[in-house]
Amino acid sequence: xxxxxxxxxxxxxxxxxxxxxxxxxxxxxxxxxxxxxxxxxxxxxxxxxxxxxxxxxxxxxxxxxxxxxxxxxxxxxxxxxxxxxxxxxxxxxxxxxxxxxxxxxxxxxxxxxxxxxxxxxxxxxxxxxxxxxxxxxxxxxxxxxxxxxxxxxxxxxxxxxxxxxxxxxxxxxxxxxxxxxxxxxxxxxxxxxxxxxxxxxxxxxxxxxxxxxxxxxxxxxxxxxxxxxxxxxxxxxxxxxxxxxxxxxxxxxxxxxxxxxxxxxxxxxxxxxxxxxxxxxxxxxxxxxxxxxxxxxxxxxxxxxxxxxxxxxxxxxxxxxxxxxxxxxxxxxxxxxxxxxxx
Length: 343
What we know:
With 343 residues, this protein is an alpha/beta fold.
């Protein structure tokens, strides 16, 4: 089936799934991709998308024409989508079925895919790496088995729909490990490495060619990255890619970009692996500064042979969605000029 036919079918499915609409009201889909859909990844994490649509949020191009969100991001120069996976979220968003549904949409539109395992029922980040409720009383060996089984369960569900992720994160912003307290790196680096390896091996069992990412926060903090990856290497941890987050203020972005670029170069030299920026963001109401930040970071990242790409975190969030203010859409649901950096 040609891409145009797939997009038409996707439009009809989305129209039936999310709205009651006629032809005039249906979001439009672009024709063939206008940008390179291979090579350097330019992407977005859109994990909130299905929840936003359910709440009635709509998305518009610069001319005010309603568009399906992933298609709009593709029209803006993006070629990749990132989706987080939670174990058993109370409201269902970002569970296995929600992840598969969004991944299917992205694939039908020709987008490349990253899956981000949090190994939690909710947010996992530098301040919280809370075990899923069902895993709370597990032993270390049981936790390793649970990580492997959950990873395979989600990935096999994708595979059953002929969806193949290009990258898989084993943990999210794990600057001090994951699944605390057993996997807290500052206390049990060996156990964090073992939990990571359980996820790594599970990914390779389902998708041998997927690249497995260990993703830390603060991509400008070389000291933390050396500490973490020296410790993981000493404990025989496995990874293919070192992932980073970077969230500068409007007054700090130049220094933070420079430090992040230097850190990426050091990681590739020190460990011989690839690197990727898995999350970036800046205040939505500073679009010109955000564009300058992103343009500089993308251009300099592309000079690093082993840098695979860059992802904006939830750019489509707008109107103070969930209190998040680092998106790249305005309050009318239109992309700001910040995203011109991806073209």
